[in-house]
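Structure, all two chains, one model.
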Amino acid sequence: MTAELPRGPAIRCDELSLHLGGARLLECVSLHVAPGTLHCLVGPNGAGKTSLLRCLLGQAPHTGRITLAWPAAPGAVGYVPQTLDFDRTLPVTVEDFLTLTTQAAPAFAGVRAASRPAIDAALAAVGMGARRRSLLGRLSGGELKRVLLAQALTPRPALLVLDEPMNHLDAPAVAHATALLRELRAAGTTLLCCLHDLAQVRALADAVTGLHAGRVVFSGPPDAVLTPDNLLRTYAGEVRT
Amino acid sequence: MSALLDPLRAALKAGATEGWLPAALGYGFVVNAIVCALLLGPVLGGIGTMVVTKRLAFFAQAIGQASITGVALGLLLGEPAARPWVSLFAFCLLFALALNFTRHRTQMAPDTVIAVFLSLSLAAGACLLPALANRADAHLIEAILFGSILTVGDAEIALLLVIGLVAAAVAVRWFNPMLLASFNPALARARGVRVVLLDYVFVLLLTLVTVAAVKIVGAILVEALLIIPAAAARNLSRSLRSFVGWSVGLCTLSCVTGIVAPLALDVRVPSGAAIVLVAAVGFGLSVAWRSLRRET
């Protein structure tokens, strides 16, 4: 699972700002993510975490500069969105969905033999191998999240961007996902991840950045920056004197 | 096209004359109609699955009804009444592009924008129709609204063949990214999919197919043939493969049955209406089957 993977890039954001429809979503955000580390973004709803990820993915018209410093040729970028927006009565199975992202041949023609190993490995990695024939619309929120994580593993990413990947997961699934993210990091993948559970952040992250109202409040190793003062400033927007 | 179809028509006529094929197949216009159905069914059935998935049923209806205005414009500009293709395709493609552009640029709900354009196009068509009073007869208006598959010629068949091939090429090349974009545009963009461009490609393809089908199914009912077989297929399927397969199969069966059954029963009804009624029966059966499956 970890053999011959491309190494992840370092990420540098300088003075990143994003204004949409008159709203300031990000304001002068500067951030550095070391290569091959797991960097978490925390903050209340509307703090700008997802906006920052969208800028990084090149999907938002920001100002400022984002630099991805790849150690060699750029590798694959995986993305785990918060959710999917689809008609839950559609007859699309878990395997169909992964086929969409794994092969060029149309998914309605079936899974190509060349695509099957990658799909099998991705489903096994998130513990969803037994649900491959299940309809996507019949999955629970947690199972759907695991499928979204599985699609991000094909092809194996050198940079993995995750938007609240632990939402809706039960305790065993969180443990499974945590082990998977650690495994990817050990293989050299750079991971940037929005999380709400600070205990998970402490357990997983090499570094963490707190955002409030589109601005960086703190950034550094979890043990050093997840202090009561910083958390109060991040989640309540208050400064304790 | 005649080089391909003439031998087929001759062979079927011989079979009908000798009595081992139904007598109706001895008529060239019936053979034309069945060939059209065999071309149109897979195209509408296949595209219908994407229309249902992307929730564009109302959009398809707007395009179908815009074709009334396109035909009216063609007649006013002096195009032949049977084939006002330049105005029809040009107006509908411009209509679709303007509608999609507005849909992307506004923050309004898509169905609101589509309803505005649909009303606009119908109003324009209604204004033009009185000016056509001395240029078009009631049969022509009926054919535009409800289809007239028994009057199709080799030119229409050639047009359907070309559009069918284009649709197949687009489906093979871009089905996966189009479907992925309908699930989550941000995820699709992260995987390098040009979401907006592909949306325009699909809308243009949908417009071409819809307009080409107007002659056969009619402007009022063409959207039904995009939606009903796909909706029935959704009830019968448990995978993407069976969804597309059932939709193509049901749509083709509806087209062929809707043409052959009125001839066999000697009932005079517009082809579009007959085709859609057959498709609706299929949908009803699919609902019943789904209900039974839930109970067992």
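The longest helix of chain B spans residues 154-183.
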